[in-house]
Amino acid sequence: MRISLTVNGERREADLWGGESLLTMLRDTLELPGSKNACEQGECGSCSVLLDGELVCSCLVLAAQAEGHEVVTVEGLADAGALSPVQQAFVDAGAVQCGFCTPGLVVAVTDLLARTSEPGDDEIREALSGNLCRCTGYAKIFDAVRLAAERR
Ligand code: FES
Ligand code: FES
User: Which of 133, 140, 141, 143 is the best mutation target for the ligand 2 pocket, counting ligand atoms within 8 Å of the beta carbon and taking the most?
Assistant: First the structure.
């Protein structure tokens, strides 16, 4: 089947089979490898994208369900090649180690700060509860969220 959708502000089309996930389509067909595939079971959040403004695990969404809808991936957050404020805050706070979790976290934090300009620790914890990081111990990630919030 062939579907048409908007990805990072651009109209895109893709040929896919009915059971294909949005994550696979983004990475393999649309050549947007920023969203990572770490579990493919909705457990890690590394594949997080915004679907019509809603944070979703793209490994759990059928690509066909995105027909006619709008998807924003981590690649779409950068502005003309410049890092977004959240991306820059992750760099400046030293919140990136292996980086595998980082794209999903950046999308989740962008979503959080769009809803809450000054999140407290509990709000940050809840917002990021679906994103697993096996490297940082989360302290630097929390620093990055606070830094991004301060700079807004
Ligand atoms: S790859 Fe989607 S939640 Fe882990
Ligand atoms: S930086 Fe390695 S999993 Fe988070």
Answer: 133
Which residue from 26, 22, 4 is spatially nearest to 13, judged by alpha carbons?
4
Q: Is the pTM of this model over 0.70?
A: yes
Q: Kindly state if the Cβ of 101 falls inside 6 Å of ligand 2.
A: yes
Q: What is the DSSP letter of 59?
A: G
Ligand 1 atom closest to the Cα of residue 36 is 1
What is the atom index within ligand 2 of the atom nearest the CA of 105? 4
**Residue-wise pLDDT tens for the chain (152 aa)?**
999 999 999 999 999 999 999 999 999 999 999 999 999 999 999 999 999 999 999 999 999 999 999 999 999 999 888 999 999 999 999 999 999 999 999 999 999 999 999 999 999 999 999 999 999 999 999 999 999 999 98
Rounded Cα distance between 65 and 78, Å, is: 25
